[in-house]
Amino acid sequence: MIIAVDGPAASGKGTIARALARHYKLPQLDTGLLYRAVAEKVSRIGLDHTIEADAVAACDFDDALLDDPVLRSDEVGKLASIVSAHPLVRAALFHRQKRFAAQPGGAVLDGRDIGTVIAPDADAKLFIRATPSIRAKRRHAELRDNGSTVSLDKVLADIRARDLRDSTRSAAPLVAAPDAALLDTSFLSIEASVQRAIELVERQLALKAERDAYKRS
Ligand SMILES: Nc1ncnc2c1ncn2[C@@H]1O[C@H](COP(=O)(O)OP(=O)(O)O)[C@@H](O)[C@H]1O
Ligand SMILES: Nc1ccn([C@@H]2O[C@H](COP(=O)(O)OP(=O)(O)O)[C@@H](O)[C@H]2O)c(=O)n1
User: Fold this and answer.
1) Whose CA is nearest to atom 1 of ligand 2?
2) Phi/psi at 46 (5° precision)
3) Phi/psi of residue 176, each to 5°?
């Protein structure tokens, strides 16, 4: 079973994807980390994030980089959004994500284009939303807990800029798949969001089972 979880920054998609993975005992991939790793490698080798060939040269990164806490910073998130707009970067990371999704037993993947590009045939798709100001407050608290002194206003401005860049790029823009269930977590606790996500997945699985049974009959 493949579950696709997409949505903008700090909407809660990672939290929900991890909880779904635990609930259904599936492996989970945070695909945003791949783009963050590319962005960080471009910085380390002193190349230019805005130049596609430079970003492509960083797509072959060491997996150990994925565990580096620096990837979680606001700055790396912003640079990830710049490198991820290059079609050749997306192409370079495509097969790795496809392979993860296609492993026996299935997987949960979260990102921006899982339900639209990486796993368009996913068994269940969620698109997670929350207002920009609530997402900024959540991300600000998270960054503060990790020792950052960045202001709430700066986090909100970064989130708005990233939303705009991610949703207006030509390659795999951030958009809900037409068959994704929408889940707005703005006024839900983490526990309530996860509970609702499980209900939505269960409903999609039941509908899919009905459709499959109809096709067989
Ligand atoms: N429903 C919620 N209510 C309050 N805080 C939340 C909620 N969902 C997630 N968070 C918190 O917001 C931050 C961002 O959540 P995360 O799941 O990492 O978002 P995303 O993966 O969409 O960027 C985390 O600190 C997380 O604990
Ligand atoms: N499947 C994905 C995942 C992330 N990304 C890009 O990578 C950036 C960082 O993604 P992320 O999921 O780690 O960011 P947050 O939503 O956690 O802030 C995003 O702003 C997107 O530009 C993408 O283009 N496609």
Assistant:
1) 111
2) 75, 30
3) -70, 135
> Which residue's CA lies nearest to atom 17 of ligand 2?
9
Whether residue 89 contacts residue 35, with contact meaning beta carbons closer than 8 Å, is answered with: yes
Does 172 score more than 90 pLDDT? no
CA distance 28 to 72: 17
Architecture of domain 2-194: 3-Layer(aba) Sandwich (3.40)
16 lines ligand 2 (CB under 6 A): no
CA dihedral for 30, 114, 75, 85, sign (positive or negative):
positive
CB under 6 Å to ligand 1: residues? Answer: 7, 9-15, 138-139, 142, 185, 188-190, 193
Dump pLDDT digits (tens) for 114-142: 999 999 999 999 999 999 999 999 999 99
Per DSSP (E only), the strands in the chain are: 2-6, 28-30, 107-111, 124-129, 181-184
Please report, for the chain, the start and end positions of each structural domain, with discontinuous segments joined by +. Answer: 2-194
Q: What is the pLDDT of residue 53?
A: 98
- 182 vs 170, which has greater pLDDT? 182
CA angle 35, 40, 45 (to 5 degrees): 125
Residue 135 Cα to ligand 2 middle (Å) = 14
Q: What integer is the mean pLDDT of 170-186? A: 94
